[in-house]
Amino acid sequence: MEPERTAQLRWFPVDALPDNLVEQEDLVLSRLDSDLPPILSMGFGTETPQPQRLD
């Protein structure tokens, strides 16, 4: 671990996550109950990630 780069490390319930999640993590966690494919290609430089199926 890199303590100088980490303000805090905590566990959160999935329904009570903090607001400052990384975009791709937020996308996947918000769609856990959907038919989201196991592998996503989200591209680079897009403002809003658009998941694409890779199957």
Helix content: 10-25%
Please outline the major beta sheet: 2 strands, antiparallel
Strand residue percentage: 5-15%
**Low-confidence region ranges:** none
Give the averaged pLDDT, no decimals.
Answer: 75
Which structural class best describes the helix and strand composition?
Answer: little secondary structure
Distance between the termini: 35 Å
Task: Label the overall shape.
Answer: extended
Number of strands: 2
Order of helices and strands: HEE
How many helices? 1
Radius of gyration: 14 Å
Biggest sheet: strand arrangement = 1-2
Structure description:
With 55 residues, the protein is low in regular secondary structure. Helix content is 15%, strand content 7%. It has one helix spanning 23-30, and strands spanning 40-41, 52-53. The mean pLDDT is 75.
Q: SSE layout and pairings?
A:
Layout: H1 23-30, E1 40-41, E2 52-53
Antiparallel strand pairs: 1-2
Could you list some keywords that capture this structure?
single chain, 55 residues, extended, two-stranded antiparallel ribbon, 2 strands, little secondary structure
Short structural summary:
By secondary structure, the chain is largely without helices or strands. It contains one helix and two strands, in the order αββ.
